Amino acid sequence: MTSDALYHSYRAKMQKIADVKYASAVLQWDQETYLPSAGNERRGRQIATLNELAHQLFTEQGLGDVLLELNSREDLMPEAKRNAALSLEDYHRNKKLTSDFVRRMSEVVNTAYHAWAKARQENAFTVFQPSLAELIALKKQEADMLGYEQHPYNALMNDYDRGLTVATVDRVFESLKPQLLELLRYINSKTQVDNHFLHQPFDKEAQWKYGLEILKRMGFDFNAGRQDISLHPFTTNFCSRDVRVTTRIDENDLGNMTWSCLHEGGHALYEQGLPDDQYGSPLGEYCSLSIHESQSRLWENCIGRGKPFWEYNFKHLKTLFPKQLNNLSANQFYKGINKVVPSLIRTEADEVTYHFHVMIRYEIEKALIDGSIQAVDIPAYWNEQYRIYLGVTVPDDKRGCLQDIHWSHGSFGYFATYSLGSLYAAQLYAAIGRENPSLEGELASGKNNSLHTWLKKNIYGHGRYFGSEELCKLATGETLQSSYFINYATGKYQQIYSH
Amino acid sequence: MTSDALYHSYRAKMQKIADVKYASAVLQWDQETYLPSAGNERRGRQIATLNELAHQLFTEQGLGDVLLELNSREDLMPEAKRNAALSLEDYHRNKKLTSDFVRRMSEVVNTAYHAWAKARQENAFTVFQPSLAELIALKKQEADMLGYEQHPYNALMNDYDRGLTVATVDRVFESLKPQLLELLRYINSKTQVDNHFLHQPFDKEAQWKYGLEILKRMGFDFNAGRQDISLHPFTTNFCSRDVRVTTRIDENDLGNMTWSCLHEGGHALYEQGLPDDQYGSPLGEYCSLSIHESQSRLWENCIGRGKPFWEYNFKHLKTLFPKQLNNLSANQFYKGINKVVPSLIRTEADEVTYHFHVMIRYEIEKALIDGSIQAVDIPAYWNEQYRIYLGVTVPDDKRGCLQDIHWSHGSFGYFATYSLGSLYAAQLYAAIGRENPSLEGELASGKNNSLHTWLKKNIYGHGRYFGSEELCKLATGETLQSSYFINYATGKYQQIYSH
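YS: structure for the whole thing
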């Protein structure tokens, strides 16, 4: 068979697998947005079946044969070569998990999700504990099946950021921690800024419309995506021409919707910017969850909590909510939306204390997976860490270890990418600014064009061609350095809290 | 293996197939309700892949072996026996179509659907014609692959109503036609009733809320279903605990939304009433599309255009739209909503002339499949038939042969079930009334309980255990007799048009 024909057969197989995976994503999107409650149970098994089928298709001997043959060919174009190499890597990885295991995982996740939801409702971790223990056991088994060096948690983090290790994350977090604590001490010594204006009644319908407008202004293409409401905001996609974001609206908090739109919008722009002609292939996929998160955090924080963005947008926001905002200056608004205060809930945390929330979860997961602690130990461990890192007392499980959905989804190894994403975001933002000194001026006049062009060229367009570190180096000239975030945060918050 | 274990394995396999089929249905539902336009193309292939996989799973030798063995066992309970027999029948049928053919059909359908939409937009049948010709060729091929006696169209009708033949439908239609024409002549000789009150501005949001209320009053369970908006109203389900209806709202026509809700609501009550513990098995499925349509037409017409229903509901409707309806009596309303007038659009037709719309499509499909006419002949043939049957001149393709979505979906053999459904509905309605002489009194006081109980016992609960004719005989004491519809319609319309 010619290499062309072989590559074509590879692409066709991968596209079919993508069809099934994206179908599963549609069912999950529907589950979070529109599914009537009584349909939940069957939906769980429908998703499990699709995941099992996708896994079966991706472990078929026929695909393996094509991939091995393809990787032996010398006459492939660079893109084809890279696709073939990445897919073979994925194939080997998938092969390590049996279809039974994948189905079992999917089913336990479904039970665990409902147990978690019930536990939250009843504000009792014990309701979630048995399912969680089962999930952790499966996750340990998964780590063993996948294999790892040094730490079993590496096998799981690898799912979200290829090659990411405990050694790397420990090193990054160790360099970040003292500097963040120092910044936090500085902030605590100053007069707190006022953000009460965010916590007034804001009409739901008006917020919804404003959210759509934010997305539009960011450059989100509504012909190739949509926004809906869900309990927890998320972004998903069924191809790069169908990207769905969700948001939630709190009638007494304008911030909830606003920065969830900016955050998910950042994810969504990345997905809409991926090469559509690579549907089903690695080069049509995002680089890693760390880089994905860099895109959401770039928009949510570097841009969306920045002065230039609000210089342009605050006037308009005022016209939408005059009663609530008319007495406010742009500077007061800017300061208020950047209030730093230790708190209980990760998703509501400011960008400084946010990292401590992530570090706590990272430490807990590491310990759960290497067996140093068990599911039953989580609440006590969690509460103790919040006392140490953030100096806050966790009043109950709902505002403690039950707050995040990830564990109920079986997502262990995910959290570190949140912090890494923020660090990447700061480093990217600095690089964009270096290359285009008028960036902030453009943002202040509502222009995103050069920003989009840069992101498309340096991030979106590459798909999974490069790993996180390599992509970062290509885009910014260096691998990940936490100093960029530290400089960004220190400069920003010393100015905000200077008086 | 014990018969129990064998049956269990059969059920597990069938449930997995159901998972994939229902997943495909979710993707189709999303396509009609929320899909952003740019996502259409990939969605088409995602659906095609799921259909292909479902077909592959349903033609696996392993399933065939289990089915053959199961059907040889003597110790099965009646329900298990029936499931096994029906699934074996389905299996043999599926085996006749190759996976390639199923995928090809799914892909051509996707192209055809878009061609049809474009043709409608441009009001030009020629835009749709090439795709349609391709589909017809595939449908002929399908009939040949499936095999048939007497007429190839029998093979296709069999998909929608097992065992239905051209001979049967011809006979029913021949008995119906002269009587309907006589009734129509009678009506035409009388003063026309007035329904202009339906064609006033009715606020969209108010109509939407009223539609939800209609469904609620019918007994639709919103924990196990929902309503959304789509271009063409339809009902779909992803298990009997997740049934989705859609409606459309015309701001200048209250009738469009109202009777589409009642119609789809009738379908939905059937789906919600099917045995949920039979998920994936024939006994968890509807009997046939004719019987399905009997449920929608029962609610839309026998009940929803009946005096008792509006005796109860009209007062409430008036409170919602006082400006539009305050000067109207219940009797004027009743007469108006039953206006009989030959028209161009099937879905807007009254229940008398409706049958002619169906007969025309039925004759065209028969002729297309046996080759007496070709796709290119459709517009002329269509327009001629409308002149003959209904005495109307078709002004353009949009209001002619492009009006229905079915052909673009590859649904040939479907239309006859619409008329049969109406006939079944009249026969069922008569039977319910015989058994419970206070039925109309109950409806007039807003009570549906005994109606629901009867339908659950005689229709819903049986799933696919019986064929249409058998089910009808068990429920009403006779196989299908068009005389019930004739008597119902003659009685009703002679009263309405008597003065």
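YS: worth flagging: Residues 197 and 491 of chain A are 25 Å apart (CA to CA).
IM: good catch. Also The mean pLDDT of chain A is 96.
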